[in-house]
Structure formats: C-alpha cells, structure tokens
Amino acid sequence: MAQAPELKLVPTPGQTIGPFYGYALPFAKDNELVNQAHPNSVRLHGVVYDGKGEAIPDALLEIWQADEAGNIVSEQGSLVRDGYTFTGWGRTAVDNVGHYTFTTVNPGATEEGKAPFIMLTVFARGLLNRLFTRIYLPEDTAALANDPLLASLTDAERKTLIATREADGSLRLDIHLQGKEETVFLSYPRES
Amino acid sequence: MSTNNKTLDPAATTASQEDISAEISSIHEVYRQQLLSGMKAETQPRVDFAPYRSSLLRHPTKNLHHADPETIELYSPAFGQRDVHALESDLTIQHNGEPIGERIVVSGRVLDGDGRPVAGQLVEVWQANAAGRYVHKRDQHPAPIDPNFTGVGRTITGANGEYSFTTIKPAPYPWKNHHNAWRPAHIHFSLFGTDFTQRMITQMYFPGDPLFALDPIYQSITDQDARDRLVATYDQSITSHEWATGYNWDIVLTGSNRTWMEEEEGEH
After folding, report:
1. Does A9 touch chain B (CB under 8 A)?
2. Complex-level ipTM
3. pLDDT value at B2 more than 60
4. Is A96 in CB contact (< 8 Å) with chain B?
5. Strand duo B173-175 + A42-49: pairing
6. CB of B268 less than 8 A from some CB of A
7. Of B64, B110, B112, B152, which is the most exposed, with the fewest CB atoms less than 10 Å away?
C-alpha cells in the first residue's frame, strides 16, 4: 500500500467513556443486527477481561460488518430497529459479569478469497481511548492463511482474533484488554 | 478537613491529590524532555496512565498492531433522520418543566483530518446536571437529581458538519480515584466519521476550569496543545439575547482512508 498522505488538521484527543454511559448510549435492540427469529441468525458472544483475568462489567462494544453476501450496506435505522432492515452496525453494554452478545449473521467475503471479519470497537471505564480489533470467522482456513494482517502475527496473537464456532452455531470470542492472552488491537494509517 | 460521611467509601484509594498530582507532573516532565529531544508531539491520551487508577489493568501492554484498512473498515454505518428526531438535540425540553441551571448552547463542526466536513453523521452526548449528578444508578453522589433533566442528546450533523445542542451547564462532581477527587465539568461526546476507523468517544470541557491541573483523566493527554483541543471556547455569536450563553467546539476525527485509496486506485 502506498504512503498515506499527511493530515491537514490534528485530530481531537479521545477520552474514556467513563462509568455513566448506561442511561445514554444503549437503546432498544441495540445488539440485534437481525432478529433472533431470522433463519440465519448467529449469536456472537464472549467476555471482556482485564489484566488480572477478571471480567469487566462496564465496557461497551460496537460491531460493524458486511451482510451475508459480503455487501457493505448503507441503511439508516440502526437506532430504531424495525426487525427487517440490516444496517450492519450494533452496540451492546456488557452485563454484570462482562459478557456481551450480538445477534447477527455471518458476514460474507467482501471479495472472492478474502477472509470475512467483523470490526469491533471497545470502550470501557478505565480505558482512556477506544480500541479497534477484528473478529474473523474460523471456517475459511485458506483465506485465513492468506490474510495479510493474520500473516503478520504470531500463532498466539492470531488466536486472539479468530472466533470459535460453537456446537449451536454461535461465534465465541473473548476480549482481553491486558495479560497473557491480550487481544491484538489495531492502529490504522492517518491517526495523527 | 471536613468530610461528607455519606460518601465515605471503603474502596476509595488512600492516595491524596498531592500524590496524584506528583505522579502526573513526573510523567509530563519526561514527556517535555522527549519533546525537547525532537520526539513528535502526542495528540491522544496515554492508555497507560497510572494516576488514573482504573486504567492500570485495562490498557493493552503491547503496541497497537498496524493494519492496512480494508473493506468494512473503509466505510461507516449510515445514520440519519430515521434514527434521530430533530428535537433530541435540545436537552432542556425532554420533560414537563424547565431544568434548573445555566442554559447553554454548544455548537461547532465535525471535520475529518483533511478538514472535510463530516455530514449527515450521528453525534451523541451525555452529561451530569447542574448539581453534578448523573441519572445513572451507579452515581450515588448526594446531589439532587433534576426531574426535568436527563442529560442525553443526539443529533445528525448538517451538510457542513455542523451540530448544535441546547443544554444546561454541567457541574463538577466527586469520584473515587483518590481522596477528594473531583472531575472538571464536562460533556461526553460520541462521534462517527465516514470510515469506522474514525469512531471516537471523548469529553468536552469548559474554559478556565480550576480542576484541569488536578484531573488524571484530562491530564492523561500529556501534550498541552492536545489538551486544549478538548476545551470549548465561549462564543458571543452563539450566545443569544436573554436566553442562553454559547460555546463553540469543533471536533477533528482522524483521516479517512477510503478517499485517498480510491483516488489512488483511480490513477491506475
């Protein structure tokens, strides 16, 4: 990839989401990208942990993904879920034991041979700036092997980004903000 | 020293403000030396900032891993009039009566790192009331809840990236980071860009707050110019006659990667 051009303006700093987002950011069906009754609905879930391996009860997660066919959609209506419109975006506050759940569909490959992934953003009390990562689907092993980001990681690091498929079809990925199993978090060009 | 027995918390750390301020000073001094030796200025908070005690176990210890953005990362969810009602940007009309406090208007623009307006995108805000109390069950600060003020607003930016909220000026409030810790008054802002990699949440502060120097969350940004970017400006042109004082605050997101990558592809 070519060198990204310099920014003209300096980005505004981020700050922690703090402890009191709970009455402001969550909304009805915020974590339901599709209805649970959707024939291809999939549960994406896991637990968010701190550096001591303790669950974090005050984190907020957002996902952003393509639809089943790999199309990136541009549909309004995320905040007023009608149960029919797939907007590709969802939000959820973790529960008292740090557990998150999204109801969604498996994203398709956006291009032939590409490994499908879901983009994840993490906010939490105590976390001074948001973190980005990817949640890869585990099935297409050839595509995973060819993925440029995964190829640049060690085996242990790679595992932190690839979800596990559970017996009931759910996708499971735990997030470790710190520690031995620390999730690989990402930076992108043009952040400063 | 006077103590409010209602807020005595066994979990509160025993660190004093002097301890916390000394830790902040020593981190900032190292940063100043690095700047003098030619290091690039920091623009974002440190995620590893021990004076903010809750950050200790909640920051990654490894460097962020560079990713070349692809596919979904080059786009952002679409929000619009379907998602947000026009009246949601006025936090003073959500109940039957007028909230108590100093009515203010906060307005500005959302821009990307190239200076382009971020049009038609979602902005969410939340804040404490004029007594420094949040409508949140975890906030047990013994200050009054205002039945006429929830402190939550949303809007969709205009064609030039402009936004405007009518609200009540929030007050400082105590927290449990250390003994006698108080947050400077702030409004939380949640922002989206044209690429999801521009997603951010931050806090807007008010000019001249005497708590700035004491606050480990604000001071987790080691660079003074960067810290200043979170402080709104009093603006007489936003102030309206016999109604509300006005503040201006522009927000700059990181750079879009879609735009320049598309332009480059077009050159092949």
Report:
1. yes
2. 0.97
3. no
4. no
5. unpaired
6. no
7. B64
Cβ neighbors of B152 (< 8 A, separation 6 or more) are A23, A24, B91, B124, B125, B126
How many other β-carbons are positioned within 10 Å of the β-carbon of residue A59? Answer: 26
Residue A118 host element (H or E): strand A117-124
Beta strands B200-205; B186-191: pairing state: antiparallel
Are B119 and B69 in contact, with CB atoms under 8 Å apart?
Answer: no
B255–A191 C-beta distance less than 8 A? yes
Known catalytic membership, residue B188: yes
Query: How many whole angstroms separate alpha carbon B28 and alpha carbon B32?
Result: 6
pLDDT digits (tens, 9 = 90+) for B163-205: 999 999 999 999 999 999 999 999 999 999 999 999 999 999 9
Interface test with B, best of A157, A160, A188, A191 (most B CBs within 10 A): A188
Using CA atoms, how far apart are residues B133 and B122, in angstroms rounded to an integer?
25
Q: Give me the sheet containing A59-64, strands edge to edge.
A: A89-93, A59-64, A117-124, A131-136, A186-187, B65-66
How far does the CA of residue A97 sit from the closest CA of chain B (Å)?
16
Q: What is the pTM of this model?
A: 0.96
- In chain B the beta strands, taken as DSSP E runs, fall at 65-66, 103-111, 122-127, 152-156, 162-168, 173-175, 181-183, 186-191, 200-205, 233-234, 245-248, 251-252
Clarify whether B173 is annotated catalytic. yes
Chain B positions touching A149 (Cβ under 8 A) are 65, 67-68
Helix (H) or strand (E) holding A48: strand A42-49
- Cross-strand pairs, B200: B191
The nearest CA of chain B is from the CA of A16 a distance in Å of 7
CA distance linking residue A146 with residue B68, whole number of Å: 14
CA distance A49 to chain B (A): 8
Closest by CA to B125, choosing from B8, B10, B232, B245, is: B232
Residue percentage of chain B with pLDDT more than 90? 89
Among the options B141, B188, B199, B227, which is catalytic? Answer: B188
**How many interchain CB pairs under 8 A, A with B?**
253
